[in-house]
Amino acid sequence: MSVSVRVSHRQGDFLLDAAFEAPPGITVLFGRSGSGKTTLVNAVAGLLRPQAGRIAVGDQVLFDSAAGVFLPTHRRRLGYVFQEGRLFPHLSVRQNLLYGRWFAPKGARREDLGRVAEMLGIGPLLERRPGDLSGGEKQRVAIGRALLASPGLILADEPLAALDEARKAEILPYFERLRAEVPILYVSHSAAEVARLATTVVVLEKGRVVRQGPAAEVLADPAVTPVGARAAGAILEAVVVRHHADGLSELQAGGHPLFLPQVGQAPGSRLRVRIAAHDVILSRGRPDGLSALNILPGVVHEVRGGEGPGAIVSVDTGAGRLLARVTRRSAEALGLGPGVACHAVIKSVAVAPEDVGGR
Amino acid sequence: MDWLGPAEWQAIILSLKVAFWATLVSLPFGIAVAHLLARRAFPGKALVNGLVHLPLILPPVVTGYLLLITFGVRGPVGGLLQPLGIVFAFRWTGAALAAAVMGFPLMVRAIRLSFEAVDPKLEEAASTLGASRVWVFLTVTLPLILPGVLAGAVLAFAKALGEFGATITFVSNIPGQTQTLASAIYTFLQVPGGEGPALRLVAVSVVLAMGALLASELLARRVQKRVGGA
Q1: Are residue A28 and residue A170 in the same domain, yes or no?
Q2: Which one of A26, A35, A176, B217 has the fewest CB atoms closer than 10 angstroms to its CB?
Q3: Which segment of A250-259, B95-104, B197-206 scores lowest on mean pLDDT?
Q4: Where does the pLDDT of residue B230 fall: very low under 50, low under 70, confident under 90, or very high at 90 and above?
């Protein structure tokens, strides 16, 4: 089931004029704050009525300004995970989780409370009140609540933004598990979250869609730096080969070995690994006597200078397309340009656990 | 409690009956008006707000007189209701109406404050989970404003128990029919040797008022515990 959105809405000085298609999986709306992401999601939820456009989930039309269709929020069969949880303080965790079920149509597929509680690790919390939960626990309950409403689409508006790094790492795997269950529209301004979760990326800038497509493709484009070049990074798809006794895991990406700090997944698991552009060093010749373990030969695809002294170079390697953030001075000194052969060097310890996720 | 005579008992029971019905019947209206004032913007909002608060500021005698000329048998509303068998003038129902009108501003103020304290984002969340507006109100808003509703109801009840000016103007002071606690105390004080019964009724008034306040405090605390915490 895919989601198709076309919205045009003016609010004061801000004009949102965006259209995108969300195939199954997680579609991340990616952009700075103020780029119109939340407005778009609220339009899909029906919390905001756009001045013009059309929104459909599968063949169900939620909104069509031309036909005068506007389905009220409660009839859209959604699950919305808000940034601040928004759990009902007067209900227990169990009652919060089951809230949506009271209103689900009789024939709807029924999620099992026990299964969802186990998947989210909230079984022991069921009789507690939201007031007694930690931030991470609240957010997991909020995810469960959305899922148990048996929605046709889950909306998530920066569900991790209010959490610290440890809590984020705790919740990300749950979204990865949801990816296979129900289409998700996920708002984020975090490149790491996008790399980890997105099947499809829709990049928003000042109320407009500037780029959309499969995650690996969009993120490997050096032009896509909506939240700054600092956050640029590409995704490699890899398979776990074995875990070594010295704490390293050996992966394979496109036939090339890749050594990373121990990952949690068992040998044979398929992973996506985000390699941040500032953790990649480029070298014309094969570097010798270097401490870095991962050296991938490749060919420069594109060099893109930005404002300031930096440039982003995309390199096609056997393992996939990588982004490297180098100074413009180095790019010139090395004579980097499309078609030039070089080596991409990735320092193993630079890849943090939150950059590694299941597929 | 044989230190209270039948006339005194009559006044106490009538007062409780009047206050109970005045509170119960005005409660839905109080919630509706509080919701309107807290959540809606509409032309004439200031006027509605003023009308609701008028009984708080007007001399009670004026309110009573206005009720008399409106709801009296020959009044525009009273005349319409009479063929339906609804009569206020000089009946206990009239005392209840007067008490309800006088307690209404207190009730609305308390409930309005609790409406304003409810985060509309929680109501949005409920609607995304499939709850229609009515269900959102019943399952989220109402439980969350319950402490304010209780507080408003108790205030209105206490006000109704003690109402005097508007009641005596509107429905007079008929023993067994419209003679409430306050009117009875007033009557006893008008006759020689009435201080004894008057004092006893004063004691009863104090006990009733304190009892109501304590009960509401306890209830509110229990509800707050249930509702509290985000």
Answers
A1: yes
A2: B217
A3: A250-259
A4: very low
Single out the residue in A172, A196, A219 at which a domain terminates: A219
Report ipTM (2 d.p.).
0.80
Are the C-beta atoms of A323 and A277 separated by less than 8 Å?
A: yes
* Contact between residue A66 and residue A24 where contact means Cβ atoms under 8 Å apart: no
Closest residue in chain A to residue B222, using alpha carbons only: A90
Q: Which of residues 88-107 of A touch B (CB under 8 A)?
A: 88-90, 99-100, 102-104
**Rg of chain B on CA atoms, in Å:** 20
- Percent of all residues in chain B with a pLDDT value above 90, rounded to a whole number: 53
β-bridge mates for residue A276, sequence order: A233
- What is the least distance, in Å, from the CA of A138 to any CA of chain B? 10
Determine the distance from the C-alpha atom of residue B19 to the mean position of all C-alpha atoms in its chain, rounded to a whole number: 7
Which residue of chain B is at minimal alpha-carbon distance from A99?
B129
| pLDDT at B229 > cutoff 50 | no
Domain that holds residue A50: 3-219
Confidence of residue A306 (pLDDT cuts 50, 70, 90): low
Question: Cβ contact (<8 Å) for B230 and A130?
Answer: yes
Query: B132 and A74 in contact by Cβ < 8 A?
Result: yes
Distance from C-alpha of B63 to C-alpha of B66, rounded to nearest angstrom: 5
Q: Average of pLDDT values for A150-171?
A: 85
Nearest-Cα residue of chain A relative to residue B119:
A86
Q: Are B64 and B76 in contact (CB under 8 A)?
A: no
Residues A185 and A284 in one domain: no
Q: Is residue A129 less than 8 Å (CB to CB) from chain B?
A: yes
Among chain B residues, the shortest Cα distance to A84 is held by B121
CB contact under 8 A, B128 and A129: no
Check whether residue A320 and residue A350 sit in a common domain.
Answer: yes
Subunit contact B139:A99, Cβ cutoff 8 A = yes
Please check whether residues A308 and A177 belong to one and the same domain.
no
What's the whole-number mean pLDDT along residues A220-231? Answer: 69
Do A61 and A171 have their domain in common?
yes
| pLDDT reported for residue A284 | 87
What is the total count of domains within chain B?
1
